[in-house]
């Protein structure tokens, strides 16, 4: 079988023969090491999962080593290799890239074959054209009008008034309609093929990257056009009545859209579930100069360049994991990872194409992920786009809650939604004057607008009693007296569950409310940046504080889930103490956000830094305390 | 789901311009499902046999290959007891520019020239390589017994 697939038997043969010589020859081993090292690749530091190898109390912990891999980094490093190879072979970068993929980036074997085999045979065997024309000045896309033409995939032909857009490779004469070509590449991408041949059965030429680029760009443009059409359409529709001319235009548009919708269906991935509110990217808006009269030309140029960079970045961001080309590079990166580590996973966040390579464990007892999670450790990793998730269960970060507990808890919450439903209400009456109060931020420190009474949303008691470390309302008073009847037992269990669920749920809704609030705020900050000369860097502290707040809320939330599973007879004062402290500090930081006007943000910098540092410290302490308590058997996780 | 133009055209052409020795008729209640017969090629152990196959076009066709299986029992190193066929164009070498017609022709060609070095039915392949005369006799015997 003359396969062209990346992982075909033929290729494995290369690998095998390679490994044979590897075993015999130690010099070769060294070369291989160097090759694997990808010395061009900006060496990514191996990262570790939290916490440090020892907690403050001296409990030894075990960490997982990992390396976040960014598709663009892999691309850069491979392109570097492609260029190097081309300086030797001088056959074009497109061709060199195909050869490198064909040889699994083993350039030694490649060069050996290149010098030993006849050039014709070598080229043909690799799916390259001997007289390759570089893709460039001329277009590979053509509007066919010849009615005798038929696409060999969908059997469509152009008609007198409807030309057919076709695509062909630069080195063969096998045109297919673009729509079929796009579908074909998508199918190949879905099968992780890196060497994609011309769709014509007997051709055998491998599609070059610059050809793929043209096809990908075309698909992207069509998709954007279809989107724009749709947007205009909805705009138009909201404005009735239509004139006769408008109806006629609408009819035409409908037709165009029907044509294009196939494209939009083609290109829009399933990734768009809209769930990535969690880590909305901080968008950088270019600075708008109100008047550029008194600005020096250099600054102007700088601003211009900055704007271009920002636009490029945004465009890249938008295309990420969305186009034929970006999906193709994602496959290349996956292949790269599979060569460099035993286990890798890709980031579960929607539309994120980052990968994590697992590099073993920083421990002499833990060797597998299973052993790792069995010790109630959490392999939280951060992808190159700063998404935090659990490498084991691929959920968003759930520390300090172990995987098994997090899973149990989620299941329980799902099963008990009905019972717990009443808790989630967003209004409560002021305990002082009974005026209904709506909670619109994440902060649990409430103040009634009517009577100015300050109270705690969780327990409805005076806030004053929360202002010291006797922050008591997050501690459950265990009723350890023997339950006499089954009914009593189940009542007790439900009460306990509801207590922690309420805390969990409260943090969850505070989290989403804080996020909402901060997003609005983000918009205002951007406006402020445009008006004044505040740079993005100068407001970085603010964004970092946002991250700290949201992350701490999430960890606090999960810490309540663990509490439910702790054996009621265990002394849990220690963890409760840390939990309370963190909870109070989180509220303080949250309050600071709520109380700060946009134009006062910079003046409050010191406060933001101070508060978020305190939160960070307590958060680390919380994780370590849990680890210590579980490791020392102070608390036992028992409940089913 | 409506039938793509390609499948309609292909079916029309299979009927208007049939391949010698091959028939392919779609079911009236499922136009993606074909009853196929292939005549055993001349001067092969399958000569004079008439082999029944089933062919199904998945939703993704022609981006993925059709599914084909022998219904008639056949003694062949590249066809297993369940009638599954080991043929590169049905797997990795599938191209959307290939058609039902070309696939059936490839299967016919496989009957003329078995490839025991890329076997699906291991025992048959062993026999084919080590005891060729006997293997061919068995193939003839099976053709007479089952493919009529
Ligand atoms: Zn087509
Ligand atoms: Zn071609
Ligand atoms: Zn990510
Ligand atoms: Zn987990
Ligand atoms: Zn009040
Ligand atoms: Zn507060
Ligand atoms: Zn309280």
UniProtKB/TrEMBL annotation, chain A:
Q: Which UniProt keywords apply?
A: Metal-binding, Repeat, Transferase, Ubl conjugation pathway, Zinc, Zinc-finger
Q: Which SMART domains match?
A: IBR, RING
The EC number of this protein is: 2.3.2.31
What GO biological process term is on the record, naming one?
Answer: protein ubiquitination
Where, if anywhere, are coiled coils annotated? none
Locations of Basic and acidic residues compositional bias? Answer: 226-238, 278-291
User: Reaction catalysed by this chain?
Assistant: [E2 ubiquitin-conjugating enzyme]-S-ubiquitinyl-L-cysteine + [acceptor protein]-L-lysine = [E2 ubiquitin-conjugating enzyme]-L-cysteine + [acceptor protein]-N(6)-ubiquitinyl-L-lysine
Q: What is the enzyme's class at the highest EC level? A: transferase
Pfam families attached to this UniProt entry: IBR (PF01485), IBR_1 (PF22191), UBA_ARI1 (PF21235)
Acidic residues compositional bias: what residue ranges? 1-40, 267-277
* Residue intervals of the RING-type domain: 147-477, 151-199
Q: Where is this region: Disordered?
A: 1-41, 226-246, 267-297
- Which CDD domains does this one have? Rcat_RBR_HHARI-like
One molecular function GO term is:
zinc ion binding
Query: Which PANTHER family does its entry note?
Result: RBR FAMILY RING FINGER AND IBR DOMAIN-CONTAINING (PTHR11685)
The protein, known as: RBR-type E3 ubiquitin transferase
Its source organism is: Brettanomyces naardenensis (Yeast)
From TrEMBL, chain B:
Question: Which of UniProt's keywords are assigned here?
Answer: ATP-binding, Nucleotide-binding, Transferase, Ubl conjugation pathway
Domain UBC core: where? 2-148
The active site of this protein is located at: 86
Q: What is its EC number?
A: 2.3.2.23
Write down the InterPro entries for this protein, in alphabetical order.
UBC, UBQ-conjugating_AS, UBQ-conjugating_enzyme/RWD
> Does the keyword Transmembrane helix belong to this entry?
no
- Identify the domain of life: Eukaryota
Q: Give GO terms: molecular function aspect only.
A: ATP binding; ubiquitin conjugating enzyme activity
What PANTHER family does this protein map onto? UBIQUITIN-CONJUGATING ENZYME E2 (PTHR24068)
Q: Family membership, please give it.
A: Belongs to the ubiquitin-conjugating enzyme family.
Name of protein: E2 ubiquitin-conjugating enzyme
What is the protein's species of origin? Answer: Brettanomyces naardenensis
């Amino acid at each position: 079988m003359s396969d062209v697939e990346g992982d075909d038997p033929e290729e494995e043969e290369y690998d095998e023969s390679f490994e044979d010589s590897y075993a015999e020859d130690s010099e070769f081993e060294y070369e291989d090491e160097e090759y694997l090292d990808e010395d061009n690749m900006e060496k990514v530091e191996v990262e570790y999962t939290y916490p440090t190898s020892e907690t403050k109390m001296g409990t030894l912990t075990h960490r997982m080593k990992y390396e976040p891999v960014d598709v663009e980094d892999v691309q850069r490093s491979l392109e570097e290799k492609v260029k190097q190879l081309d300086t030797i072979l001088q056959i074009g970068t497109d061709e060199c890239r195909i050869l490198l993929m064909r040889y699994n980036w083993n350039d030694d074997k490649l060069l050996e074959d290149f010098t030993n085999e006849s050039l014709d045979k070598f080229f043909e065997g690799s799916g390259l054209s001997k007289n390759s024309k570089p893709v460039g000045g001329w277009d590979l896309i053509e509007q066919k009008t010849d009615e005798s033409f038929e696409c060999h995939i969908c059997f469509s032909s152009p008609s007198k008034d409807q030309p057919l857009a076709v695509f062909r490779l630069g080195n063969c004469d096998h045109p297919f309609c673009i729509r079929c070509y796009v579908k074909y590449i998508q199918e190949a991408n879905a099968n992780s093929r890196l060497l994609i041949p011309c769709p014509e059965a007997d051709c055998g030429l491998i599609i070059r990257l610059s050809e793929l680029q043209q096809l990908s760009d075309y698909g992207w443009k069509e998709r954007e056009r279809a989107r724009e059409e749709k947007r205009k359409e909805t705009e138009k529709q909201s404005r009735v009545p239509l004139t006769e001319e408008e109806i006629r235009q609408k009819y035409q548009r409908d037709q165009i859209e029907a044509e294009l919708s196939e494209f939009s269906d083609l290109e829009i991935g399933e990734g768009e579930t809209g769930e990535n509110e969690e880590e909305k990217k901080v968008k950088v808006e270019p600075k708008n100069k109100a008047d550029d009269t008194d600005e020096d030309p250099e600054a102007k140029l700088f601003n211009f360049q900055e704007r271009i960079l920002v636009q490029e970045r945004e465009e890249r961001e938008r295309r990420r994991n969305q186009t034929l080309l970006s999906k193709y590079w994602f496959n290349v990166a996956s292949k790269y990872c599979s060569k460099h580590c035993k286990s890798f996973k890709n980031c579960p966040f929607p539309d994120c194409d980052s990968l994590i390579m697992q590099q073993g464990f920083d421990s002499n007892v833990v060797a597998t992920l299973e052993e790792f999670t069995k010790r109630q450790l959490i392999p939280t990793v951060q992808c190159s786009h700063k998404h935090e998730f659990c490498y084991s269960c691929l959920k968003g970060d759930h520390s300090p809650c172990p995987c098994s507990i997090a899973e149990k808890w989620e299941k329980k919450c799902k099963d008990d939604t009905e019972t717990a439903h009443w808790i989630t209400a967003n209004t409560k009456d002021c305990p002082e004057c009974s005026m209904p109060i709506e909670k619109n931020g994440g902060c649990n420190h409430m103040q009634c607008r009517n009577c100015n009474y300050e109270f705690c949303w969780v327990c409805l008691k005076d806030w004053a009693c929360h202002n010291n470390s006797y922050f008591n309302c997050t501690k459950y008073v265990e009723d350890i007296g023997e339950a006499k009847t089954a009914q009593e037992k189940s009542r007790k269990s439900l009460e306990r569950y509801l207590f922690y669920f309420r805390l969990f749920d409260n943090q969850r809704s505070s989290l989403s409310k804080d996020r909402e609030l901060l997003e609005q705020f983000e918009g205002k900050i951007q406006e402020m940046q445009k008006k004044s000369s505040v740079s993005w860097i100068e407001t970085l502290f603010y964004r970092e504080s946002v991250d700290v707040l949201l992350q701490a809320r999430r960890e606090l939330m999960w810490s309540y889930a663990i509490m439910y599973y702790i054996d009621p007879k265990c002394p849990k004062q220690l963890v409760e103490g840390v939990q309370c402290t963190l909870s109070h500090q989180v509220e303080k930081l949250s309050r600071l956000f709520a109380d700060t006007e946009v134009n006062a943000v910079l003046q409050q910098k010191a406060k933001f830094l101070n508060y978020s540092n305190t939160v960070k410290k307590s958060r680390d302490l919380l994780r370590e305390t849990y680890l210590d308590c579980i490791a020392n058997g102070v608390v036992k996780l028992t409940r089913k | 789901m409506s039938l793509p133009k390609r499948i309609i055209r292909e079916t029309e052409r299979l009927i208007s311009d049939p391949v010698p020795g091959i028939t392919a008729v779609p079911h009236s209640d499922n136009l993606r499902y074909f009853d196929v017969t292939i005549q055993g090629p001349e001067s092969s152990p399958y000569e004079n046999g008439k082999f029944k196959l089933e062919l199904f076009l998945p939703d993704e066709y022609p981006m993925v290959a059709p599914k084909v299986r022998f219904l008639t029992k056949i003694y062949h190193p590249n066809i297993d007891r369940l009638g599954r066929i080991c043929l590169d164009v049905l797997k990795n070498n599938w191209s959307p520019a290939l058609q039902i017609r070309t696939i059936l022709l490839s299967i016919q060609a496989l009957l003329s020239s078995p490839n025991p070095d890329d076997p699906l039915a291991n025992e048959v392949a062993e026999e084919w390589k080590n005891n060729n005369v006997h293997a061919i006799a068995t193939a003839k015997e099976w053709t007479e017994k089952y493919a009529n």
